[in-house]
Amino acid sequence: MAKIRLMIVDDHEVVRLGMRAAFELEADIQVVGEASDGAEALAKVSVLDPQVILMDVRMQHMSGIEACREIKSRYPAVHILMITSYSDEEAVFDSIIAGADGYLLKNVSRTELLKSLRLIASGQSLLDPNVSKRALARMTGLADGSEQTPGEELTEREREVLALVARGYTNKQIAETLYMSEKTARNHVSHILEKLGLSRRSEAAAYAVEHRLVPPQKREQ
């Protein structure tokens, strides 16, 4: 019986190791390699020749969505299962548009993950039921013109803070740049993460770059 050739892409080494350990217990799955971001995954596809790629959505350097889009355009036969730690309708929508074959949350059971992987490998597609309704609603909104543009839910001040987060500024540096207290800067960052459905600053930075919410810096005269 031919084994499912699997590639694991996640920017957390512990996650990759844990997944590899789980999959290697299965007789019909062979982990052919790993990558720590989308760019590395894209570079390794032609060498590793995976049948299925299990890929984290938000990673530094190149997100899973960007990598999915590129891989699908170059290697359409490769099946891609996106996985993330939180329910994010924007990521679901973008994953579908990028050509992903499925989308799951990281809190699924091992049994469900294995089942999903085998379904994807067989040519079927799937979406986690917890996020599929939100993705459908977002696509419907886009079709009827009611869809929000990325970052529209943020205030002008929050957009300024987000741009600085994307440039790697700390809360203290944001406070100094925008003439506010460090506590206020911290609160702005928390509100931004909450509104965008994100959990980490790095995710907010990736979101800002991906959706072009970072204005170009002014050059010194």
Overall 3D form = elongated
Could you estimate the helical fraction of the residues in percent? Answer: 40-55%
Tell me the name of the CATH class of the largest domain: Alpha Beta
Tell me the β content.
5-15%
Report low-confidence residues grouped into runs of 5 or more.
none
Cα Rg: 19 Å
Number of spatially distinct domains:
2
- Using the coordinates shown, work out and report the CATH topology of the largest domain: Rossmann fold
Mean pLDDT score, rounded?
83
Count the strands? 6
Strand order of the largest sheet: 2-1-3-4-5-6
Q: Please, what is the CATH homologous superfamily of the largest domain? A: Response regulator
Query: Biggest β-sheet, characterized?
Result: 6 strands, parallel
Number of helices: 10
What separation lies between the terminal Cα atoms?
67 Å
**CATH-derived architecture of the largest domain:** 3-Layer(aba) Sandwich
Description:
It is a single chain. This protein is α/β, with parallel strands linked by helices and 221 residues long. It has 2 domains: 4-143, Rossmann fold (3-Layer(aba) Sandwich); 156-210, Winged helix-like DNA-binding domain superfamily/Winged helix DNA-binding domain (Arc Repressor Mutant, subunit A, Orthogonal Bundle), CATH 1.10.10.10. It has 10 helices and 6 strands. It has a 6-stranded parallel sheet, sandwiched between helices. The longest helix has 16 residues, at 129-144. The radius of gyration is 19 Å and the shape is elongated. It starts with a strand and ends in an 11-residue tail after the last helix.
